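TASK: fixed-backbone design
INPUT:
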């Protein structure tokens, strides 16, 4: 399976290049991370490169220990931030992250449709079932993965029906006749389900007739089925080409078996880009960024995901499939746990090797450490193999890596015919549909 179609590219506003020691660099502008200008600058650069979207992940809890050494994921509300960016950009899609585990669907439907109006059709929703934070919402424990996905399916159905409950066509705005809207086109949804009761309709009309794009991030069996049924794209964590190809092939099949076209679901892996002028500088950047990485925390992550406590093992001992417990422990993200288990099964790494793998930090993203050319080569290879429909750029280590991504890598992909050289549509849905 190969593809000559154009890629879809998003830029993280996380900002990943401040992780590890990145925020300590003099030019990091870390003082700005709770102000809109910091993000407007990135969004404008991303728009100049004609990216499909900027993307803000989110969580609803704070890891207190982690903020001792870096900003972590404590952050501005992503939807509010994207409203500020909407005012300063014209074309780029605005992908927010909202959890279906902790919010009421009516509020979410309204916020997303509000972002859609305020950006003139550029809102997108990354649907997450969340990894943590139950204590902040009166829950005794985090609901299981199955429960979270069941709720997510009902939640998403309600949100979509609310968006359709007051369609754009209902607006008449007939000054002469005095008719503002055709109320017969506006209907309650009268939903009564396992987790929610929502009468509707939504109290604002939908913007235009292009749907708000939906993304999803979990890739367990249930996550894949959910994404294949409703999502326009999956934000994937795939550390190697084979894993991306397997995921893309599988999702396309699942989409077809649910009555959708295979192309309806796109696979966009996170791509961690440690970029510099030379390979040596890029490697130094990576090492400097992770110099204080905390092994104790990694041992805990490995134990939580596999059930294996390796903290007393010699660093040169290999971890093999035979060491894995027969019954895996319950985990919050099957996607991340399976990536780690896959690494152990396929490579039997040493304990030391495991500690430096991205899988052991719970972030098994595709990674390039090198020059702009190295990144272009890797992306071209994955695209040629039919493993991806695009990627979400997660620059690492320095502000320069972010600039090299947007001003080096993306223009070269456009020169090679793998990416658009200008926008052809006005909405986020238009950008996702534009790939030839
Ligand atoms: C690549 C990736 C990114 C994710 N990003 C977020 C996020 O920003 N916020 C969040 O609350 N959960 C996030 N999640 C968690 C998922 O929504 C989901 O709750 C979790 O992965 C469990 O589902 P699974 O068992 O299918 O992996 C992410 C998961 C993956 C794999």
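OUTPUT:
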């Amino acid at each position: 399976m190969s593809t000559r179609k154009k890629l879809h590219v998003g830029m993280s506003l996380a900002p990943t290049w401040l992780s590890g020691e990145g925020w300590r660099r003099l030019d990091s502008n870390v003082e700005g991370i709770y102000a809109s200008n910091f993000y407007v600058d990135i969004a404008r650069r991303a728009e100049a490169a004609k990216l499909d979207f900027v993307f803000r992940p989110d969580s609803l809890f704070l890891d207190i220990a982690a903020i001792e050494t870096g900003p972590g994921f404590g952050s501005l509300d992503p939807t509010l931030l994207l409203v500020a960016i909407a005012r300063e950009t014209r074309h780029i899609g605005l992908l927010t992250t909202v959890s279906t585990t902790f919010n009421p669907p009516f509020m979410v439907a309204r916020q997303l449709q509000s972002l859609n109006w305020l950006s003139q059709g550029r809102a997108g929703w990354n649907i997450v079932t969340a990894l943590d934070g139950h204590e902040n919402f009166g829950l005794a424990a985090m609901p299981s993965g199955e429960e979270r996905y069941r709720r997510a399916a009902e939640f998403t159905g309600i949100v979509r029906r609310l968006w359709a409950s007051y369609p754009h066509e209902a607006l008449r705005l007939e000054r002469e006749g005095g008719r503002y809207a055709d109320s017969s086109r506006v209907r309650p949804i009268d939903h009564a389900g396992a987790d929610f009761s929502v009468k509707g309709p939504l109290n604002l009309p939908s913007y235009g007739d292009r749907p708000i794009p939906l993304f999803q991030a979990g890739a367990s069996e249930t996550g894949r089925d959910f994404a294949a049924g409703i999502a326009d794209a999956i934000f994937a964590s795939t550390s190697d080409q084979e894993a991306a190809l397997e995921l893309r092939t599988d999702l396309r099949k699942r989409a077809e078996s649910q009555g959708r076209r295979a192309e309806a679901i796109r696979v966009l892996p996170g791509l961690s880009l440690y970029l510099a002028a030379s390979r040596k500088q890029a490697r130094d950047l990576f090492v400097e960024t992770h110099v204080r990485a905390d092994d104790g925390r990694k041992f805990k992550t490995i134990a939580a995901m596999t059930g294996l406590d390796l903290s007393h093992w010699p660093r040169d001992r290999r971890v093999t499939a035979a060491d894995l417990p027969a019954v895996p422990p319950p985990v919050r993200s099957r996607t991340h746990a399976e990536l780690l288990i896959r690494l152990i099964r396929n490579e039997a790494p040493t304990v030391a090797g495991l500690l430096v793998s991205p899988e052991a930090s719970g972030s098994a993203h595709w990674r390039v450490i090198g020059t702009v050319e190295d990144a272009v080569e890797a992306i071209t290879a994955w695209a040629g193999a039919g493993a991806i429909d695009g990627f979400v750029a997660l620059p690492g280590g320095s502000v320069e890596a972010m600039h090299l991504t947007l001003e080096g890598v993306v223009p070269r992909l456009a020169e090679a015919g793998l990416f658009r050289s200008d926008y052809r549509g006005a909405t986020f849905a238009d950008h996702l549909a534009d790939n030839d």
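COMMENT: The chain has two domains: 8-280+365-433, 291-355.
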